[in-house]
Give the backbone structure.
Amino acid sequence: MEKIYLKLFNSLEIGDDFPTIVMGVLNLSPESFYKGSVYTNQKVLKKAVLNMIANGAKILDLGARSTAPWSPKISIDEELKRIVPALETVCKIIPDNIIISIDTQFRKVAEKSFEITQKYEKHAIINDVSCFKVDQELSNYVVDNKIPVILMASKKVPGDLLTIPEIVEEFKKTINELKLKNYDIKNIILDPGIGHWIEEKTHVYDLKIIANLKQLRELKLPILVAISRKSFIGKTLNIPDPEKRLNGTLSATAIAVYNGAHIVRTHDVTPQLNEFLKMAEEIRKSKYLS
């Protein structure tokens, strides 16, 4: 079996032979479904950043626009108004080995964000939940500047694919398009798009995606899962309140890691999470021991 491996910025090693990478979520959007992840106060933001790093986060994901389908839409100018001061704050306090992920679907936001990260000489990547379907110019920006990217499985709108075979097929199309633009596809991280992104995508589809995550390995690229406190956990456990979905999150995350996830995007960067990840990794590795 061919091992999956990616080295970001000659510092962060991601793949089958390395510990699961923790990506901490820093939401700058009051509209976000989980209010415990929203950091609109700079003092609170600083505390959260330092706490996440202390507990092992290697990537910090900053997003200023809620991507939940039912969230009110905001302008690109509003997205910039939110992310610019927060990004300045984060860049000033993080060590050089921490990678910043810019969660946006728009080139204008990416360009301004990268001006800031470059000013502070910090490493940054793009996280696009639309898989370049919302703003094709973001794709061109990523290609022209050779920026590593997280792409979430999407065909027409974010997260609208229901099964792993559909997800694999759509990813293949996007990867081939990027190849034709001479983009180094080894800089791609894949997110299968877990969540209630469209009406038809019930919690059952999310459970099946996690259960069959290994099928994404045929693309030979690192796999990221964004599971934290999502509605499929609430539906499965009959827990409407995201505040109470931590146990379900930890359980589903451990199973996803056992099934091949290399990166977990989470609101809760804690020692407890690290123990769950370690156990899942060790059990996964034991399958290949003689």
About this structure: The CA atoms of residues 15 and 159 lie 24 Å apart. The chain has one domain: 18-286. The chain has a mean pLDDT of 93.
